[in-house]
Amino acid sequence: MPDGCGATACCLGLDVGTQGVKALLIDADSGAVIARGSAPLSLMEGLPPGHAEQHPSDWAAAIRSAIAEVWREVPKACESLLSVGVSGQQHGAVVLDEHLQVIRPAKLWCDTSTAREAAELSATLQRPIPAGFTAPKLLWLKRHEPSNWARVRHVLLPHDWVNLQLTGAIATEAGDASGTGYFDPVKRDWDGAALAAIDPRAHDLVPPLAAPGSIIGRVNALGADLLGLHPSAIGRVAVSTGGGDNMMSAIGAGATTPGPVVISLGTSATVFTVSDRPIIDPSGAIAPFCDSTGKWLPLICMLNCTGVLEEVRLTFGMDHAQLTQLARAVPQGCNGLAFTPYLRGERVPNLPNATGTLTGIRDGLLRPGHLYRAALEGVTASISSAVGRLMEFGLTATTIRLVGGGSKNALWQELISAAIGAPVEPLAEPETAALGAALQARLISR
Q1: Residue 267 pLDDT level (bands cut at 50, 70, 90)
Q2: Which residues are catalytic?
Q3: In this predicted structure, what is the pLDDT of residue 36?
Q4: pLDDT-derived band at 8, boundaries 50, 70, 90
Q5: Residue 315 lies in a domain
Q6: What 3-state DSSP class applies to 186?
Q7: Per residue in 40-71, is it b (16+ CB within 10 Å) or e — as a string?
Q8: DSSP-derived pairing of the beta strands 53-54 and 10-16
Q9: Do 89 and 193 fall into the same domain?
Q10: Are 11 and 239 in contact (CB under 8 A)?
């Protein structure tokens, strides 16, 4: 690390994901990465099948750990921090009482226990509402935990909650809000009919909307403590609106104009591209998201991605590099072995109760290399189908930008490029959601 970095103005990006928190510190002038930190997260254990929850207090603890790594790397940089941006996993339901205290753990994007409520809302509103969106979570809470529902005064998304801890401000922005199921992406405002379908008072529970890329507030005492900052940072360090992880990843991947398609290979697989117009898919496969710059971000999300590969790894007790090497020796098509990768149910296609299947099993095919390649090909087929659906609406795929943990797998890069028919464009920074949040923070500091 160069001498004097403590005197260099810097900006911080936080990405609060399902598997962990990533922190990225960048130079405010050049945008170059100065330092980084991370801390793991896990789902709550012992829940019934289909339930996926985390407590926001665990996000705060992970933020502290990740930030501590950053300050250990550049001890004096905290003195010159100008601004912070927050990226958060989408769709989570953080419910707060009148004292702004968390009432219960947050139900997450990968929670499929709300399939019944999602189907009912879809029928009522005459448009698809996936089980993973926020709307069915609220209806589920109202029905299954009425005493908790009665206490709810605010409903926030994960990145909104982090912003609240940093600034004391309750607000959200169109990008993350468009993943709730009760937001109109065309009008870029709350959908009154959808909120009324949940509960007559639901409209009073959602936060006000802030302009994309604006200053949502400044760090308060709680925020300074959470970020490990000196009290002199209070009222000085600005916090941007931030956004959902996909919206921030688009910024970090440089996908702010139509053409590049970003594919995130993480716990879930997401495929998205920027559009100058809203994309409304009657089938519901394409989520009609807004982005966090004032445009739109049509996106398809599949619940099953790197977790499928991890299941194969756990089965054989080998690492991913070894399995990838074995998979390279297996011919395309895996000698007829096919892996349908719906281990967590699936969102696209909308099969929340589906299970995975292996077909074409013959002697000698239940081997590590065959199973790993079949898993890669199965997830790749889902991704290719998603890109094809986007193209049906007149969007284009000039290049592919891979992000997420799976993006480093060279064999997977080749499979995706061949399946879609577009070149993979390497990215200098793999943590695009944290980078996007930091770049947005940099923008408000100018």
Answers
A1: confident
A2: 245
A3: 97
A4: confident
A5: yes
A6: coil
A7: ebebeeeeeebbbbbebebbbebbebbbeebb
A8: unpaired
A9: yes
A10: no
pLDDT score, position 5: 47
356 by Cβ neighbours in 10 Å (0-12 / 13-18 / 19+) ranks as: middle
Instruction: Say whether both 217 and 295 belong to one domain.
Output: no
Which amino acid makes up residue 159? H
In this structure, the strands spanning 243-244 and 81-88 are parallel
Q: Which of 214, 229, 247 is the last residue before a domain boundary? A: 247
Q: Which range marks the domain in which residue 303 is found?
A: 255-426
Residue 148 has pLDDT above 80, yes or no: yes
Q: Is the distance from CB of 39 to CB of 21 less than 8 angstroms? A: yes
DSSP per residue, 224-283:
HHHHT--GGGTTTSEEE--EEHHHHHHHHTT--SSSEEEEEESSSEEEE--BSS----TT
Task: Identify whether residues 323 and 178 lie together within a single domain.
Answer: no
SS3 152: coil
Largest CA distance in the chain: 68
The kind and range of the H/E element at 400 are: strand 399-403
Q: Are 432 and 33 in contact (CB under 8 A)?
A: no
Length of the chain: 446
For the stretch 150-198, pLDDT in tens is 999 999 999 999 999 999 999 999 999 999 999 999 999 999 999 999 9
433 is a domain residue: no
| pLDDT tens digits along 119-130 | 999 999 999 898
Name the nearest CA neighbour of 398 among 255, 229, 184, 199.
255
Domain identity same for 192 and 297: no
- Residue 444 in any domain: the answer is no
Q: Which of 352, 265, 364 is nearest to 308 (CA)?
A: 265
In this model, does residue 4 exceed pLDDT 50?
A: no
> In this structure, are 24 and 58 located in the same domain?
yes
Q: CA-to-CA distance for 260 and 126, rounded, in angstroms?
A: 32
Closest CA to 427 of 407, 397, 406, 405: 407
Residue 263 binned pLDDT confidence (cut-offs 50, 70, 90): very high
User: Could you give the number of structural domains in the chain?
Assistant: 2
Secondary structure element (H or E) that encloses residue 58, with its range: helix 56-73
Residues 265 and 404 in one domain: yes
Calculate what percentage of the chain has a pLDDT beyond 90.
89
Instruction: Report if residue 434 sits inside a domain.
Output: no
Using omega within 30 degrees of 0 as the cis cutoff, is the peptide bond preceding 56 cis?
no
Residue 1's pLDDT is what? 36
Residue 2 has pLDDT above 60, yes or no: no
User: How high does pLDDT run on average in the chain?
Assistant: 95
